[in-house]
Amino acid sequence: MEAILMRSDNSWKIINEKEITLDTLQTAVNGCIEAVYLNDNIIMYCNEDGINLELPLNRFATSYGHFQKRIIGYIVGDVVFTKSNDNGDTISLSQDEINNIIDFIEVYQNESE
Q1: 93 near 2, Cβ under 8 Å?
Q2: Which of 37, 40, 77, 102 supports an S-S bond with 47, CB 3.0-4.6 Å?
């Protein structure tokens, strides 16, 4: 299964695991997770206590959430992008979905320079 980890320092990597588990997600965001549901069953998981922990602003995740018209505030800390099926199970992002997110990352990083 593939997911994307987007760190608050604007670095990112593809997570390639046999299964994306709760432990995988909690480790990636450094704590308990909160799901932000985006379009087409894509989910952005973030640290649910991120604001109280004063985690740094994740400018990319915030911009992506605004672009998807799914958040009005801001996102802090590292996030993981994954997907769910109709049963709510976590599944792999498709290659097209990965490419779309990576394209958005690259445009965002170029505009931020």
Answers
A1: yes
A2: 77
For residue 56, give the DSSP letter: P
R_g of the chain, CA atoms, integer Å = 13
For residue 101, give Cα distances in angstroms to 23, 49, 91.
Answer: 23, 25, 16
Count CB neighbours of 24 within 10 A: 20
- Nearest CA to 73 out of 34, 113, 40, 108 is that of 34
Question: What ranges in the chain are assigned the alpha helix state H?
Answer: 22-29, 59-67, 95-112
The two tokens of residue 59 are 């400018």
**Angle ∠(59,62,64) on CA atoms, nearest 5:** 105
DSSP 8-state code for residue 73: S
Running along the chain, 113 residues long, what does each successive block of 10 average in pLDDT? 93 91 94 91 94 95 85 91 90 92 84 67
